[in-house]
Write a structure and sequence with these properties.
This is EAL domain-containing protein. InterPro entries: CheY-like_superfamily (IPR011006), Cyclic-di-GMP_PDE-like (IPR050706), EAL_dom (IPR001633), EAL_sf (IPR035919), Sig_transdc_resp-reg_receiver (IPR001789). By secondary structure, this protein is of the alpha/beta class. It is built from 17 helices and 14 strands. It folds into 2 domains: 139 residues, Response regulator (Rossmann fold, 3-Layer(aba) Sandwich); 256 residues, EAL domain (TIM Barrel, Alpha-Beta Barrel). Strands 6-7-9-10-11-12-13-14 form an 8-stranded mixed barrel, surrounded by 5 helices. The chain has a 5-stranded parallel β-sheet with strand order 2-1-3-4-5, sandwiched between helices. Helix 8 runs parallel beside helix 16. Bound molecules: ligand C2E and calcium ion (CA) (2 copies).
């Protein structure tokens, strides 16, 4: 804990001092404090921290504003990661809960709330949770390649370009999709990975915008498709036939001749077209262009499946759902991961599953983070799940092994634990 970097953001210097003394007694020495949001933002960008302790109510705008600034900093690649967050507030439960939701939506994976009069005993308990969170992040970094050590220097655009241009540095991971009833692996999603020659993995949220800026979306798409084709051929040799999905933005899908090119490359494999799924993915809402509609209809007519990705956020509106010939619906992890703590999110997940079923779509819940999620989703009638509580994204060689012998591994765990 001695190496934990903390920033206290509070309008009250008395609260700041009290909290600082308490952390000091717990052995934490690297503590900074700020009395203003703007100052906190500038300091965070200069020197990131592991733990942010922030007042919900601040004199210059409120802690929510700082969350938005951190979110923007991460998206621009100026911050390597979001810190853990402890909200401090004497406000009512409703406001506290909505601030927790807000932070989760902004990508904060570890969020807690406390009242300003936290004592040493509560502080010790809280720091234990922080320790557990750090262990989980270190494990995620080990298994998944995400930068788990907070406070690492963000990648510069030049470094991302270096990584993209180095031979063999773009690869794919596959994240299994699981039939929730019995744990059988029923498919996978291909996720692009980019490795910097000296600094390790770069997150998709950092390298994908650079790919787009350089106009390389199509190149990346076909690179991922090649990885998927190679995996499907290896699986086919083992007698395993399970679909794999590829992410594609609306702009990629609307490129001229794309469907013809996909179909031609796929047909060379002599594999069934139903083994390839295209996920329509994007964070910003585009016009539902005619080109996109044409591409999706052609893909479907050619026998490929199409998934509506990130349902509930961004592009995947009801308008999209009614206009496009989707075969499956992927419920965004934002709602699924937090549905056990938020009754609103629970209801959104439940009603989206019903809607998907009514529309004859296969519903895949993303963000299945624990056995409790599996249990709740099963009760809601959701048949398929994807998430860290089932399987993390893995190298194709591991996926091939898993797909050969599943569902044995998953079944060993109790869905009620
Ligand atoms: P996505 O399509 O929603 O992919 C799922 C993301 O959620 C992956 O992050 C995956 O590692 C993560 N994830 C899976 N299970 C859980 C869980 O239980 N909890 C949480 N918190 N997260 C989970 P990743 O690999 O960082 O990818 C991020 C996004 O980057 C993807 O989101 C997708 O939008 C985009 N992306 C990835 N590969 C490609 C690609 O080849 N092309 C395009 N256009 N976009 C891609
Ligand atoms: Ca996806
Ligand atoms: Ca998704």
């Amino acid at each position: 804990m001695e190496n934990l970097n903390v920033m206290l953001v509070s309008g009250s210097s008395r609260d700041n001092d009290r909290f600082q003394r308490m952390l000091f007694r717990a052995g934490i020495r690297n503590i900074r404090h700020c009395g203003h949001i703007r100052e906190a933002e500038q300091q965070l960008l200069r020197e990131p921290v592991d733990l942010l302790v922030c007042d919900i109510q601040m004199p210059d705008g409120g802690g929510a504003e700082l969350i938005a600034k951190v979110y923007a900093g991460v998206r621009r690649g100026e911050l390597a990661d979001t810190p853990m967050l402890l909200w401090q507030s004497a406000a009512g439960k409703l406001l506290q809960e909505s601030h927790v939701r807000l932070a989760r939506e902004a990508g904060f994976n570890y969020v807690w709330v406390t009242h300003p009069s936290m004592d040493d005993g509560e502080c010790a308990l809280f720091l234990r949770q922080v320790e557990l969170a750090r262990e989980a992040m270190a494990e995620a970094a080990r298994v998944n390649g995400v930068p788990g050590r907070l406070g690492t220097r963000p990648f510069s655009e030049q470094e991302v370009i270096e990584a993209l241009c180095s031979k063999g540095n773009i690869s794919i991971d596959l994240q299994p999709q699981v039939r929730l009833r019995d744990g059988a692996v029923v498919g996978a999603e291909a996720l692009a990975r980019c490795m910097h020659p000296t600094r390790g993995n770069i997150r998709p949220s950092v390298f994908l915008p650079v790919v787009s800026k350089l106009g390389l979306d199509l190149l990346l798409f076909f690179h991922v498709l090649s990885g998927v084709i190679a995996t499907q051929q290896a699986l086919n040799e083992q007698g395993v036939r399970l679909p794999i999905s590829i992410n594609a933005s609306a702009a990629t899908l609307a490129s001229p001749n794309l469907v013809r090119e996909i179909t031609m490359r796929w047909d060379k494999t002599k594999l069934a077209r139903s083994l390839l799924v295209i996920e329509l993915t994007e964070n910003i809402e585009p016009e539902i262009g005619l080109d996109l509609m044409v591409a999706l209809n052609q893909l479907r007519a050619n026998g490929f499946d199409i998934a509506c990705d990130d349902y509930g956020i961004g592009i995947s509106s009801l308008k999209m759902l009614s206009a496009m010939p989707f075969s499956s619906l992927k419920l965004d992890q934002l709602f699924v991961a937090s549905m056990l703590e938020s009754s609103r999110h629970y209801e959104i997940v439940r009603s989206s599953i019903l809607l998907g079923k009514e529309l004859n779509l296969q519903v895949i819940a993303e963000g299945v983070e624990s056995a409790r999620h599996v249990k709740a989703l099963r009760e809601m009638g959701c048949e398929t799940g994807q998430g860290f509580g089932l399987y993390r994204p893995m190298a194709p060689s591991r996926y091939i092994e898993l797909a050969r012998r599943a569902p044995v591994e998953w079944d060993a765990r109790s869905p009620d634990s």
